[in-house]
């Protein structure tokens, strides 16, 4: 680590660490994007229009690594399998399917 400023014994320093975590929820059968988290925040503008203002993460929980999906105002068409994928540095490191039955 090199810094433009001199760092002396007894000083404090911030060491950089980029968060390359990306979490996406999709419909398993159609790959429709339900919700996306990247660059340290939810990306609601990238989700499919059917899920605007209905699908989101609880921001307090994402800080603890919990990316459970909250889906409001359920519709008959919401029934089915949802897939959560976690990426680190463009590589999928976790994938899990959850079936929603109404």
Termini distance?
Answer: 53 Å
CATH class: Mainly Beta
Task: Say which CATH homologous superfamily is assigned.
Answer: Immunoglobulins
Uncertain segments? none
Global Rg: 18 Å
Give me the count of strands: 7
Shape: elongated
* Spatial strand arrangement across the major sheet: 3-2-1-6-7
CATH topology: Immunoglobulin-like
Domains, number: 1
Tell me what the structure shows.
The chain has 102 residues and is mainly beta. It has a single domain (21-100), classed as Immunoglobulin-like, CATH 2.60.40.10. 4% of the residues lie in helices and 39% in strands. The strands form 2 sheets. Strands 3-2-1-6-7 form a 5-stranded antiparallel β-sheet, with no helix packed on it. The N and C termini lie far apart (53 Å). The model has no long low-confidence stretch (mean pLDDT 87).
Question: Brief overview, please?
Answer:
By secondary structure, this protein is mainly beta. It is built from one helix and seven strands, in the order ββββαβββ.
Describe this protein with a few key phrases.
7 strands; mainly beta; elongated; two-stranded antiparallel ribbon; 39% strand; 102 residues
Topology:
Blueprint: E1 21-27, E2 33-38, E3 41-42, E4 55-57, H1 59-62, E5 69-71, E6 80-88, E7 91-100
């Amino acid at each position: 680590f090199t810094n433009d400023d001199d760092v002396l014994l007894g000083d404090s320093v911030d060491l950089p660490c980029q968060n390359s975590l990306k979490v996406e929820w999709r419909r398993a059968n159609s790959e429709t994007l339900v919700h996306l988290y990247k660059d340290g925040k939810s990306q609601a503008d990238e989700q499919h229009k059917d899920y605007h203002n209905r699908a989101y993460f609880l921001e307090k929980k994402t800080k603890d690594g919990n990316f459970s999906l909250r889906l409001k105002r359920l519709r008959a068409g919401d029934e089915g399998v949802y897939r959560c994928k976690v990426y680190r540095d463009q590589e999928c490191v976790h994938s899990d399917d959850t079936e929603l039955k109404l």
